[in-house]
Structures
1.
Amino acid sequence: MQRRALLQLGLVAASAPTLALAAGKAILANAHGAIGDGETLNTKAIQAAIDAAAKTGATVALKPGVYRTGAIFLKSGVTLRLDKGVTLLGSRNIADYPEMPTRVAGIELTWPAALVNIYRQKNVRIVGDGTIDGDGKVFWDSYWALRREYDPKGLRWAADYDCKRPRLIQVFDSEKIELAGPRLRRAGFWTVHVCYSRDIHVADLNIRNNEGGRGPSTDGVDIDSSHDVLVERIDVACNDDALCLKAGRDADGLRVNRPTYNVTIRDCVIRDASAGVTFGSETSGGFYDIKVSGLTVHHPTPVGILFKSAHTRGGTVKDIDIADMRLHDVATVLRVNLNWNPSYSYAEIPRGMADVPPYWKVMTQHVPPEQGRCRLSDVRISDIKAIGAKTAFEVAAFPDLPLERFAFDGLDLDAQAGGRIANAKDWTFTRSRIDTLDGRPPEIAASTGVKGL
């Protein structure tokens, strides 16, 4: 634990001097042919500047302008500095994002690269006050078109994988990475995806994915089978999970078996999302040693704290600390749903379909029940204040596999109803107030050892 604490302190201390160093002399992508007119495709020019910078560990910068580009790949030792007035604008052509091995929504497969990629590199930084704009509406529209085709066929579960959309920033199998400062806009798919990586600092991002529409599955920051990660001061409005922990899906996630651990998320503002902080639904590799604090969550975000999984996910989730949250008109304070979104969570190939993508077969591999159920325990939730909630608790698990050892301290909840807690074991409430319209506490069902309510 001491080493982890020192590592996190090191990440925090590194953020200020990193920005100072990056402000010095830089290689201009304009010198390699980049034109900031919003129309010219600058992929080759920007990549040439990055490749030149990689030879000496230099910084890449651009003159003020709007630079249309396809996927670019940062290299070890390089800092990409996006100054105020600089915008990287994503290509609308999926062909400008080459396909490569990665993980998407918990499944390893070949998929389009992100707009900005840190792929199997180390000591890379993206800093500055500029903007990375995915211009993602064309990809959102293609997704909804596919959903209209797939949903009647019982293929809701396949749509997110078959509709290939570029993420905004991918950090994959990399270490000692810093992403600090830029404004992130209109991601085609997830905004920041940190996968199979360690020693990561993500800070001071302003994420807006609902401009010109509501981008489907435009998660804010996803930490996926990674460790030693610090996420802080994120201001996010998106159309799915804002700050999310992931660790693989079903048989493929159980095969990979890489947990997410030693993650700190703090001092963030969630303005519009599916939840303030989310664990899952990709739980297969498990989570532990996760600390979340200092979150402010606003309406129309419907849930403050969300744990979600499915009967085929598996994984162990434990040692979670959540503290100091403020929820404003958020409908549900805490939700635990281990049978989340069945039409998406459970893959089944319709009869008569033979020529299907290989990952469909992976996604439909059988997971035995003893491996498929998520185990959730040892969660500590403290100093949560909610005003204008409809329901305090929407919690359920399995009668023979209850949610164990949740400790609540310092809850101050104003809600229309207490809601329901089912399948809980050894839950404790101290210094907590749950004020409901009918004056009744949450209903306790099929639970043992719930004390203090």
Note: The chain has one domain: 89-451.
2.
Amino acid sequence: MSAPTSISDPSFKPMSSDAVARHNAVVLAVAMALGGSSPAIVVSLGGLVGQALASNKELATLPVSLLNLGLALGTIPAAMLMRKAGRRIGYIVGAGIGLAGGCLAAFGIASYSFALFCLGTLIIGSYGSFNQSYRFAATDAASDSFKPRAISWVMTGGLIAGVIGPQTVIWTRDAVQAAPFAGAFLGQATLALLSMAVVSFLRPAPVSVSSATLGGGRPLLEIVRQPRFIVAAVTGLVSYSLMTFMMTAAPLAMIGCGHPVGAAALGIQWHILAMFGPSFFTGRLISRFGKKRVTAAGLILIAVSALIGLSGTDIAHFWTTLILLGLGWNFGFIGATALVTDCYRPEERAKVQAANDFLIFGSVALASFSSGKLLNAGGWETVNWMVFPPVVVALALLAWQRRAKAIAPA
């Protein structure tokens, strides 16, 4: 068993500046490409499988919602495990959870059990709670100047996952002839197994002895009450929740407007590319223009995407909305993640990161639950109008923090 990464290892010889961070960022980007494909597989097939297995067809999308719920519920246990056992052991355990979830989901399909399939997607979601912390793990050994780039490197793995996930569905969905789509979840389990091998190459971040002996640092309540944490958490929450809220409703709205399923699928594909494609340069933008400006730009792009959504219901309107939504999420979420890294000391990172992700992905779960219902009740126009109030609040908090900093005494 490897030594926990949060404890100094006397036998460990630190590498040159940011060398460990660069190595780990590459490892985590590959792990993200493999593990990050799991949500794409569940989102692509969860509703179809649910429709085939659920006796009550209104519950057809429940497996997808449980994916997000599992992600939210898993954030704190995942952080506690990694704090005690280290990043590497934690991520190996997480990949094992993903492997088990995929196998259980496949067994649920083969045995025609909707309950088992739902339990499988819930477990796959908890695997996602480990994957989502990769972006923070990449900053553990990074200098302040390299942190935004390390986060961006990991997020580029999501771009590759956006290809691997759908291709896994295409190539494996009929692998088990007696149980359509079970093969795709066995494919997801295989990707989790590969991820387990990849994360074993993580190197421990060099941590000073003083940091290692400070226990848990400040109380969590004291940290999360900091204005800068509140701003970082709210901007991340708004960016991710609104992206999920609109992305979930858009395909249904397109089909409701008479557009073909293929056009809706292509819209989601362009959306995923827009979400992760900019990660190649988002870190450099943050280094040049600052975390708050890039985060604000992301929030503004999300608002603009809603304006485009309100301007018409042609395919071009939907696709443009989804592309701008993806770009806005990338800038807003990566910027907010970088802001969170300014809020804690090294010995506090596990609990603060967990608290941040619990808030974000709890809200994402609520957004995914409510999106379809609001679309049915008020239509696509109402969905778009709901975007503006949260964006205004988040932008106002960023402006307030910048003004407070500007007038603070030297």
Note: The chain has two domains: 16-206, 216-410.
3.
Amino acid sequence: MSTAMARDPAVPVHPLLEEVAAGRRGHEEFRQHLRDTGAPMVERTTAGEVAVTFVDEPGSAAVSRLSVAIGPVVGRNTVDVPFTPVAGTPFRALTLRMRSDLRFSYVFTRSGPDGTDTHVPDPFNPPPPFSDYPEARFSGSSVATLPDAAALPWLAEAETLTAPTVASAVLRSAILGNERRIWVSMPPGGSPEGTPLPFVVQLDGTPDHSAPAVRDALVRAGRIRPCAVVLVDQLGPLRYQELRCDPQFSRMLVEELLPWLRDRHPLSHDPADVALAGESFGGLCAAWTALHHPAAFGNAVLQSPSCAYHPDTVYGTGAGDLLRRNPVPTLIADVLAAAPAPVRIFHDAGELEGSVTHSRWLHQVLTDRGYDTVHREFAGGHDYAWWRGLFADALQWCFPPERP
């Protein structure tokens, strides 16, 4: 478990829980307090740390544990300390000492008497807007924002807006021999004076993705040029083939998707007005595709990219490790091998995710090669809780009111 969430047995029980356990505060009164003030409960302990108390009411479940998007697993990492029953109540609680600047997605993992696990959001902290994803390991999570976490104001603004209109259509690919949904969202007011719009193609797209609403908040505030958002369906498990530096998938984006979009919408042909964006393997694909096709994509948005990827990387066990070789990751090797491409790159990564070392390596290589690039690190893990909000920074980098 990451030192960002080290358990300290000396952390005191939250005073409200002591009152509930002692009968000085009723169960329903405590439930209503959590609903009104929000969960988890946070108390400052030092300048840079807080005590964070999670409360569950699991019913017949035998054990409750906390699972968070910080740790070695991409997705949910389960803290090995179960919640403690609060005497005389249906509640169970867990208090952990944490860095005060964290933001993270989490769920409660409830283990029933039959040994099955159920992942549920915090009953006192419902998932925020834009929290449903095709992959269950990310979808439907609650989000904890601790007191010193960097603000994500444009995401907060986007969450208050009416959901933007998204037009759906099917793209049939001769290159890949398959078809997928494409969703397109135009900016508020459409295309100003009929001029072609800049646009961002977002991989791992869904019709409920946060990108269109974040775009609307920025456009209305005059922080970016009006731009279209294109959301690309990744066809479930096929994403693990398509997004890992697959030349055929990149060809589909360039030779089929872009012409198909421009036939239907007033979109710019200037690569400086086109961005390819993705998270995790989607970020890897965005970078690799833009670097190999700079005449199509002049901008790439990499959110926690899986830039350690190489198809020949294998891991042995025991004696097998004596034969293991670690090649230079594909994306980094390609940057080093080719002349710099005219691509601007926005790149963010979590300080507490396992791939952060490779992200730092990629940023250093891009910088040394002379790319126009920016790299941000956030206090968290491999987590949509950050990606949703930092996408606003990426749009401002790609499409500022005055073109770079």
Note: The chain has ten helices and 17 strands.
4.
Amino acid sequence: MSTDRHPAAQRLYIGGEWVAPDGGHYDVINPATEEVVGAAPEASRAQVAAAVDAARDAFDGWSRTAPEERAAVLDRAARVIRREAAGYAELAQAESGATTGTARALQVGVSAARFERYARGALEPVETAVPPQINAAGPMGGGGVFGAVAVRRPVGVVTCITSYNNPWANPAGKVAPALAMGNTVVVKPAPQDPLSVYRMAEALAEAGAPPGVVNVVSGARPEVGEAAVAAAGVDMVSFTGSTAVGQRIAEECGRQMKRQLMELGGKGAALVFDDADLASAVSGIGTTFSFYSGQICTAPTRVLAQRGIYERLVAGLARYAEHLSVGDPREPGTVVGPVISAAHRDRIEAYAALAVKEGARLVTGGERPTPARGFYVAPTLFADCTPTMRAVREEIFGPVVTVVPFDDEEEGVALANDSDYGLLDYVWSGDVARAFRVAGRLRAGGVGINTVGRNMEAPFGGFKRSGVGRDVGSYALHAYSELQAIVWPG
């Protein structure tokens, strides 16, 4: 690693200061062009410890800051993000390979909206009255009427480990509610696209976040994240990423009894019944091919199609995929950009080859698209799949959809629930009563009925190996707080 190849190399953000990294820098690569975007800092374990200490030192003051003041800081940060949105989106696109519309609206735009939402969230009531209780006299003291209130308090220092698929919205969804509740944070961004998170730290500093309230430490080596999780001064870990990494983090949290919020993998089932609006189902499922190039845990990648519409649905998905423009995400007509890295592209292609070997029918895709440079994967559709195929069971995290037939409702529900994951499932049916009945039987943290849209005030999180805890809306404020009971005699 070297610090002299890039005169404007990024520094770490610790305790309100921009600090040169002990481990030098590594290149951040544009997945669309394979060119160097910039130089990201490689923190040492000692620097991670310094960031935790800075957050610990800042916690007492920030946690006792008036909610109105915390709200003002978050609101000002949102205004800075909106003011600088064009430049921020350009950087996010270069780091992540997102299309222009995605980088502007769904990365930077959503980030600003989340800071605005939790500026309001800082002002939400934290006390919940508990009904009074009449106690008889006994060994614990005299009888009487006892009042109580449950109060949400900040957890303390939160390590936020963010995902590469959205370098703005994902960190904002952790940092903003954590700060709103009075916590301080150490953010460890994904190694593939960390530079945007440093711009977020700049926005918060300009907005008046006191030194140590927000700290950012990055690194390509696993030691950085491990140190940010294991540090004794950390009270909670919020992680978005793979189930395998989440399990290792959970083990460390368990040893120290740290609170955790885990948003992990997904293999969303999309049950499409004979009476479904097929155009709606195709357009919803088709987002897997285009939205973040399939690099999203909520995607309906595992389609379960009732036999009466099976062939029509497969044909509709094939036509949809074949009309998607793959290429440079900066071009206005591009719908499908690159995946994050060469290694991830190779992993997706290996799954496609395995699906064919296991007997799946390749309907469309499967080949590497024509751009000479960049990490592109063609939208790929497999039909005639069986529930035991690895491409059906395992999270591929790319623009790949598998289709499995089923006969009746009982079989469809059983197939949907036959998964290690349980994040978001989907039901398409013209019978609303059946759709809600089926939704109630699905072992998933969320169910979309005739839509892949989401209500951003509804709780978000997974069953089974898809995670622990819930966030979004006011549920995120609950996630980044502890409940304290206060009791008094009446």
Note: The domain at 12-264+467-489 is CATH 3.40.605.10 (Aldehyde Dehydrogenase; Chain A, domain 1).
